[in-house]
Amino acid sequence: MSETTPPRYDVIAIGNAVVDVIASCEEELIDELQLNRGGMTLIDEARAAELYEAMPPARELSGGSAANTLAGLASLGLQCAFIGQVADDQLGTVFRHDMRATGIDFDTPAREGEPATGRVLIFVTPDGERTMNTFLGAGQYLPAAALDEELIASGAILYLEGYLWDPEEPRRAMRRAIEVARGAGRKIAFTASESFVIDRHGDDFRAMIEDGVIDILFVNESELATLTGEADFEAGLALVAGKVPVLVATRSEKGAVAIAHGERAEVAAVPVIKVIDTTGAGDQFAAGFLSGYVKSEPLTRCLKRGAIAASECIAHYGPRPEADMIALMAERL
């Protein structure tokens, strides 16, 4: 596919195919189970079973960082496709159905046998903070052979999540996907996902930044500090801003900053009456931002879209939009 071929999709994402299991709990349970409050911890299948047994009544919703972002983009009318791996089991069937029902093309073949489809056990405390415990399951065995390279080349933006960089097999698959997308003249968007991923693979991420591989980088304040080694937010921005064409840094209730080609824009967080669940807020911010970016909207407007999408997300349980997002954007922009 040549560089002049118009893209078929606005965004194609590669990410974890997981189902979120979300339960409200008191602070005491976080301590009792020795969970990493407010963070994300990788767990094995045995620990997943143990935590599930200890959970209060829960809701099961398809999740995964990049998949959540695509769900947000699809709700805003964009054409999207997903590459990720589920097992040939019940949760895998649920995940595939949810993606397709949202209007996202998802045709990666299911993996036979063990392990099971991945899941994230999420404990939400009364302040809305989410503590995530992730069993990656089948997703961590996504092979390069499962990539549809023609599909990858047909997306204007290839969106990658840092979470999936951790296992070796999908990391190789994503490196190959980057080669295919860049060869087709497409843009690479990357979300760092979590500070612990940067602790483990920061050298890879910094090398990609230095080599000009990443066109759009999404980080939160904590991830930026881990990536740069700078506790000061502005100092961290200065270290990265000149090395990626578009840098987007979110700061929870303090809003967000974007620097693109030397232009800087900032927005405040959109207030909500009550924070119910922060799961997926960053994923939906990325969706809102990209929904403006693909239409070449001004930088501030892209950030406003992100802030609106994040505010909708944290006002309900679950990581994907529940409101009519097109109407919500029209009302609040």
Describe, in short, the structure shown:
Helices cover 39% and strands 23% of the residues. The protein has 333 residues and is α/β, with parallel strands linked by helices. The strands form two sheets. It has a nine-stranded mixed β-sheet, sandwiched between helices. The protein has a five-stranded mixed β-sheet with strand order 3-8-7-2-4.
Explain how this protein is built.
- With 333 residues, the chain is an alpha/beta fold.
- It has one domain (9-16, 64-113, 139-332): UDP-N-acetylmuramoyl-L-alanine:D-glutamate ligase, CATH 3.40.1190.
- It is built from 12 helices and 14 strands.
- It has helices at residues 27-32, 45-54, 65-75, 90-101, 149-153, 168-183, 195-210, 221-228, 233-241, 281-293, 299-314, 325-332, and strands spanning 9-14, 18-24, 40-42, 59-63, 80-83, 105-106, 117-124, 130-137, 155-161, 187-191, 216-220, 246-250, 256-260, 263-267.
- It has a 9-stranded mixed beta sheet with strand order 6-5-1-9-10-11-12-13-14, sandwiched between helices. It has a 5-stranded mixed beta sheet with strand order 3-8-7-2-4.
- The longest helix has 16 residues, at 168-183.
- It starts with 8 loop residues before the first strand and ends with a helix.
